[in-house]
């Protein structure tokens, strides 16, 4: 029976090709714009570490006091060097690491090759197990090497390819900014997006880091941060690198792993206790204030999803809504015009349900065709997304089987939803009245 | 034209009428807000930088060796001499940042008193030498340029607060609204006052995020040579019309003078046009997207009105025939459909205006968009009425050509 209805539907749609094309294109455009912006939204709002996002936390400490917030700013989204090293030293979480971005010049062994710039992060040993960094060769360094300020480095598989042709390079040396580092591990392709541990410095969607080295070692060589350095107020600061380390400038990212609710509670009170201690020591002249956000809360707090992406999604959904209202109107007109035909079919014994199903089948054909048009337009949209969004973000959006399926499903569901009222009206046609009027 | 019979007829097509009205309402809300977003973004892009944009380019030079402050400063001076000697080059300077760079440099709180809590403004700090104004083409409107002996070297974390500065007119007006800023001083995150010795007409900030909108064009130059161990920006002004030649010879000359440097092949060398494109990437993209949404949405709404009206005309051929037979002219029938559409549009627009402000208010609270001026709604209303009348015209014309004899035919 369904096949028969579909045939009837096709026949009816072919009778008004322009109107049919209009409905199909409306559904297609509406779905395609929503799907394209959704593809971008999905790419930037994804959870970078789903299995651990509730166990990873970023603490904040109010080191600048209420004056700094007079103009609506929040407390710094990084720690000062003093606080980061104090928290590292007291080691109260299951795992913890201080992190900051660094940039070096890499001078290849081969004198014929030009030196080039590399970027990476200074971190502690816990970084690797905490963030589940996969390794191709070797491993991360250990806590003892943190203590010893070891000259070791973990390099990315890309850098390993560039320098050692992809071979196992563990034990080889890499020359970074006048210092030799021993390769201790080669990380497999690892670039969580957004890069949650660095969203306070970057958009979170930049190229993957080339290397990681011990935080303690980076400080030893007086390596500057390549990220943000937020300072507040006109307070005197001693000059030079040590003056900077002792200052109230916030530039160290800090992450802790807390396996359960009890650990979170304990760490929160520990942080507050730490801030209280600092206040009693005369460093803070205001009530202690700390925060502890988990990974997903941190993504929200840092507004990782650019406002452009959200506005586009909202307006595209509004656009889809208009397209659907349009389709409802056209279908209604089309179906009601055939009231006479419906009257005849009803008089010949078709039930309301059968009429309803027949017109729903016709709507489904529109939905599927609209979906196919939508898939093609979404393809075009994703290709053209570079025109509209920033390059870092645009390249994340891509079309895959899931998106194609979602586009088809979305257009079918939307069209059937839109068809609900017109088909219902069609099924309520009074046969007697229709027959009489002719 | 009597409205009464039209309303009576519309009552028989309640659902269709409501759907068109709803579509017009939603279209108005979305188009007005999209146009407003487009306007805001374009206005942002059109802000002047004060820079001689067609002749300036920028080199991001990173050092390949670890230099101390003296070595870095000497290298910078040597490189600048190399650049200034090139035949296609007018002048060259160094800085830690430049207008629209979006990277490097710093943004400082500015206060008028040393113990002031709430900052008076927030300004971009550019480090620059006595060639900075001339190289960028910034127009000095009061006071003087830096002297060579005022320029001090500063390493990465050195807290150097110079005694003198050159600021933008926008910043001068913000600090001293009476126009007497020259010779006065202010504090910039330090307890040492800085004296204003020069004012330039326009000098855009380096960063332009939403937070910086209240501080547009607030910027200043400090007489500092950037002797950072990381690297430095060289800003070069080519002789008029020789930008391409200068951009080609500059990196070659620098590498020939000293190989231990990195100029990233990807974005280490950028003309100011490229700098501008990068800075306004997301603004331009947003304007394009909103433009596409507007055009397609209006097209679909227009097509929807054509489709639905065509159906109504087809459905009412007999009634139209009867009216024609009873003496109605072509013009009467045409007016009937145009007025019908106008009534529906007005109804839709009434709801649409409420939706427009609702959506705008929501965008304001969620995305710091700004309140929409009434002119947008008015132009949106005019646009939709014209669209509706235009869309309904063809079917209405067809209706007016229905011959009176239709009255005698069965539907």
From TrEMBL, chain A:
TM regions (residue ranges): 21-41, 313-335, 356-389, 401-421
Native species: Dyella psychrodurans
Keyword Transmembrane helix found: yes
Record key words, sorted: Cell membrane, Membrane, Transmembrane, Transmembrane helix
UniProt lineage: Bacteria, Pseudomonadati, Pseudomonadota, Gammaproteobacteria, Lysobacterales
PANTHER family attached to this UniProt entry: ABC-TYPE MACROLIDE FAMILY EXPORT SYSTEM PERMEASE COMPONENT 2, MEMBRANE COMPONENT OF TRANSPORTER-RELATED
InterPro entries in alphabetical order: ABC3_permease_C, MacB_PCD, Macrolide_Exporter_MacB
One GO CC annotation: plasma membrane
Endpoints of the signal sequence: none
Membrane topology, record value: Multi-pass membrane protein
Every MacB-like periplasmic core domain range: 20-262
UniProt domain ABC3 transporter permease C-terminal: residue ranges: 314-431
GO-annotated molecular function: transmembrane transporter activity
Subcellular location: Cell membrane
Protein name: ABC transporter permease
């Amino acid at each position: 029976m369904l096949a028969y209805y579909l045939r009837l539907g096709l026949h009816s749609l072919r009778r008004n090709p322009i109107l049919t094309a209009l409905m199909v294109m409306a559904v297609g455009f509406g779905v395609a714009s929503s799907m394209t912006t959704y593809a971008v939204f999905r790419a930037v709002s994804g959870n970078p570490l789903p299995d651990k996002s509730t166990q990873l936390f970023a603490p904040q400490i109010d080191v600048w006091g209420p004056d700094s917030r007079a103009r609506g700013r929040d407390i710094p989204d990084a720690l000062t060097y003093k606080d980061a090293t104090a928290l590292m030293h007291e080691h109260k979480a299951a795992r913890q690491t201080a992190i900051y971005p660094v940039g070096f010049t890499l001078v290849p062994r081969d004198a014929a090759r030009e030196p080039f710039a590399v970027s990476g992060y200074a971190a502690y040993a816990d970084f690797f197990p905490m963030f589940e960094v996969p390794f191709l060769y070797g491993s991360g360094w250990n806590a003892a090497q943190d203590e010893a300020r070891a000259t070791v480095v973990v390099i990315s598989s890309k850098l390993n390819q560039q320098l050692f042709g992809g071979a196992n390079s563990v034990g080889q040396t890499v020359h970074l900014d006048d210092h030799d580092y021993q390769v201790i591990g080669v990380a497999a392709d690892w670039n969580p997006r957004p890069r949650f541990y660095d969203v306070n410095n970057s958009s979170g969607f930049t190229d993957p880091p080339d290397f990681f080295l011990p935080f303690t070692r980076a400080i030893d060589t007086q390596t500057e941060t390549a990220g943000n350095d937020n300072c507040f107020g006109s307070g005197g600061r001693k000059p030079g690198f040590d003056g900077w380390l002792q200052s109230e400038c916030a530039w160290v990212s800090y992450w802790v792993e807390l396996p359960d609710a009890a650990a979170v509670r304990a760490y929160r009170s520990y942080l507050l206790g730490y801030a209280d201690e600092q206040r009693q020591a005369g460093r803070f002249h205001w009530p202690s204030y700390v925060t502890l956000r988990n990974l997903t809360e941190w993504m929200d707090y840092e507004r990782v999803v650019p406002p452009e992406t959200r506005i586009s999604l909202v307006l595209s959904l509004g656009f889809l809504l208009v397209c659907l209202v349009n389709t409802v109107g056209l279908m209604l007109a089309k179906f009601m015009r055939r009231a006479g035909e419906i009257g005849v079919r009803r008089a010949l014994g078709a039930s309301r349900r059968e009429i309803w199903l027949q017109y729903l089948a016709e709507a489904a054909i529109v939905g599927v065709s609209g979906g196919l048009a939508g898939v093609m337009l979404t393809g075009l949209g994703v290709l053209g997304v570079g025109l509209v969004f920033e390059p870092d973000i645009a390249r994340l959006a891509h079309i895959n089987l899931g998106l194609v399926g979602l586009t088809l499903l979305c257009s079918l569901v939307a069209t059937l939803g839109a068809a609900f009222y017109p088909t219902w009206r069609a099924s309520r046609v009074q046969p007697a009245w229709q027959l009489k009027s002719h | 034209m009597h409205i009464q019979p039209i309303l009576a007829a519309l009552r028989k097509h309640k659902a269709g009428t409501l759907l068109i009205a709803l579509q017009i309402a939603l279209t108005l809300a979305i188009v007005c807000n999209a146009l407003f977003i487009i306007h805001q973004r374009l206005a942002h892009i059109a802000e002047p930088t004060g820079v001689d944009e067609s002749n300036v380019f920028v080199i991001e030079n990173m050092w390949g060796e670890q230099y101390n402050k003296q070595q870095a400063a000497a290298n910078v001076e040597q490189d600048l001499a190399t650049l200034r000697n090139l035949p296609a080059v007018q002048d060259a300077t160094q800085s830690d940042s430049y207008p629209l760079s979006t990277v490097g440099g710093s943004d400082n709180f500015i206060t008028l008193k040393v113990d002031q809590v709430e900052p008076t403004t927030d300004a971009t700090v550019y480090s620059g030498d006595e060639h900075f104004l001339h190289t960028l083409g910034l127009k000095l409107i009061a006071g003087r340029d830096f002297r060579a002996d005022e320029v001090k070297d500063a390493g990465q974390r050195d807290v150097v607060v110079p005694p003198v500065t050159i600021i933008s007119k926008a910043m001068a007006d913000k600090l001293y609204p009476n126009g007497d800023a020259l010779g006065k001083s202010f504090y910039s995150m330090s307890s040492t006052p800085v004296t204003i010795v020069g004012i330039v007409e326009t000098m855009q900030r380096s960063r332009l995020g939403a937070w910086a909108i209240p501080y547009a064009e607030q910027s200043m130059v400090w007489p500092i040579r950037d002797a950072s161990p990381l690297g430095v920006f060289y800003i070069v002004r080519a002789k008029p019309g020789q930008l391409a030649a200068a951009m080609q010879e500059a990196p070659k000359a620098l590498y020939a003078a000293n190989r231990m440097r990195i100029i990233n092949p990807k974005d280490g060398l950028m003309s100011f046009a490229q700098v501008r494109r990068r800075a306004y990437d997301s603004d331009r993209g947003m304007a394009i997207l909103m433009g596409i949404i507007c055009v397609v949405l209006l097209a679909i709404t227009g097509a929807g009105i054509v489709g639905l009206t065509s159906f109504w005309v087809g459905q009412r051929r007999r009634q139209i025939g009867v009216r024609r037979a009873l003496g109605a002219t072509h013009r009467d029938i045409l007016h009937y459909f145009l007025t019908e559409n106008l009534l529906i549009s007005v109804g839709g627009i009434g709801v649409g205006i409420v939706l427009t402000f609702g959506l705008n208010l929501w965008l304001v609270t969620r995305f710091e968009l700004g309140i929409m001026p009434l002119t947008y709604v008015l132009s949106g209303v005019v646009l939709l009425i014209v669209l509706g009348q235009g869309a309904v015209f063809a079917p209405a014309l067809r209706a007016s050509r229905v011959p009176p004899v239709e009255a005698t035919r069965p539907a």
